[in-house]
Structure formats: structure tokens, C-alpha cells
Amino acid sequence: MGQRKSGSEQRAFEVLGISEAEERVYRQLLARSAATQTDIARAAQVPLSKAQRLLDSLQHKGLATYSPNSPRRYVPAVPDMAIEALIRRHQECLQRARMAAQEMQAEVVRKRDKDAPEAIVELIESGGAECLVYEQLHRNARHEIITLMRPPMRVSSLDPPYDHRLQIEAQARGVVFRTIVDADFLALTGGVGLLRSEIEAGTQARSVPHLPFKMVLVDRHTAIIPLDLERASSKVLLLRSSALLDALHALFEMLWTKSSPMPFGRDGEVAPCAEDTAIPSELQGLIALMCAGMNDKAIAIELKMSARTFERRVVSLMKALGARTRFQAGWLAALRSIAEAVGKDRMDLACGNRSERG
Question: Of these four, 92, 178, 186, 277, which has the most CB atoms within 10 Å of its CB?
Fold first, then answer.
């Protein structure tokens, strides 16, 4: 058996049930405006019997008609109208299948023991099942997907090219993506690259020093949580709406308010935390990455510099801030950011007051 073609290699009309041979004969008809069975057999280089079967199939699908005279002359239907009719027919079939699935689910619910409590926790024991649930959660999301991301990696890959199709499809429906990563994730080889690509795709991201567990929570309705953080193949809990899920969502919001924004813009470039004329522009990005909690090696790789150059930049930063230690440099940089934020808030408030008086 041959390998199944990938999505990009599949023919456009295959999903409508039009075989490659039928499409070829249809194109032959379009090129001739009208043709007999013999014409088609000769053009397609197939036996007369097969040519007739293909013409009959096209006629059944509404892609061709034939004249009453003998021998029959087959005339192609206008492509846009004929294909649109086939699309509508398939949509109706899909809608019937959806309704049948809903009725099937309703039947399952009716048969379920009414006194039995609803299962709010399920155990997912295989990696394949976890990937399937992960995909279904993204495809069914309607409002928000929030993530606590730390090692080990389970579904996402740290190696490019990155696949963000599920995220892009969900965002097209209005789904918002927020994620919090920890220092261990940022220290992974490829961790910063994956995070930057997600930010470019539309994710809002922040960092904290440490996360106690991993989680994906969708619409405050369903979540998946790995049970063992030491093994990437460990079992996973699937949680549904409950007080426990509400508590996990509240925990995420608490972490979000205390976390540091990641210093990457939608273009993937490092965005400085704050403009400070006292600090050289080449050091602004360094401050931003340090504030995000990235370690020295990850920062050096991100800024495309050697370890020696990185150390020289840190020394320059300490001099610009008037700091004696790196800890003091971080503290002073944080104070400058806070002072600037307070100053901006005061300026906005003053502008608002002037506007109201005006």
C-alpha cells in the first residue's frame, strides 16, 4: 500500500468524493464542451467500459449531463455551480452526522444512572490519548486557553519548525492564549525559541521563578495536569468543571499578577522593559531578559553573543546603574522600572483631570 498523501498534497476535490480519474475526465469535458464515450476513452486512454463508468459517475454527481441523441454527447456542468452544489450536499451530510452524534450523547446521558455523581476527574494513561485530548481541547475552546509551562515537555516540541495550527485556528474564533513559564523552562535548549514563536503567533506570556506543576486549562471548564514531573510519559489527570478547577483558575490569575512579562514583541524581537536615557540602548535588551528570569547562558544565546561579551555587558550595566553587585543591579533596574510606571500613571491621571476640567 502507498503512503497516504499529506494535507498539502491531497487534491482539492478529493474531499468531495471526486476521484482523480473522474476529475481528469471532467477536465477533458470542459476542454471540449461536449464529448462522446469514445472521445473520452481515447483522450483518457482507458477502455470504453471504464470511460462509461466515469461519465455515469460524473452525471450522478451533477458534474455532467448528456444529450438524448445517439451516440450520447456528454456536456460538462459549469464548475462553480456544480462544485458549490456538491459542497452544500456534503455540508448537509456533516450536519446530519453532528445531529446524530448529539442524539447519541443524549441517549448515553439518559441511560446513565441519575444517582451516580458526574465524573469530574479521569485518568489518561497513554501518550496518544493525551495528544488526542490536547487537540480536542484546542478545537473546542471558545474563550480562553491558559497554560502553566515547565519541564518536561510532553506534547509541544522544542525543535523548529514549530506547529501553531491549533492556536491559530482557535484565535480565529476569538480564543485568547495566556501562558506562564518558569526558569527551568527558559533554561531548556530551545525553550526560549518555542516561547518566542508562540508569542509571535499571538500568545501573551509571562515568567515566574518556579512552577509547582504543569497545566492546560480551557474556558474554565476542562484542564489536563500531568501527575509526574520527572517523566514525560507519566499519566495525566483530566479535570472538569468543579470547585477544584475554579481554584486552579484562581491560582493562575494570582501567578499572572505576580509574574514578569516576557520581553519579546509580536515580531519576536527583544523589547526593552523601559526606556532609560541613562542606560545605553544596547543594554536595554539585557535588562529586559534579566528581569524575565532567564539565566546567563540563555540570555547570551538570545542576544547572539559569547559568554565573554555577555560578562562585559553585565559589567557595563552595573557601571551605568552604579551597582557593585549583580543583585544590586537587578534591584536598581527594577526600581527604575517601577518609578517610570508610577510616573506614567501620574501623567495619565493628570491628563485625565485636565481633560475633565476642560
Answer: 186
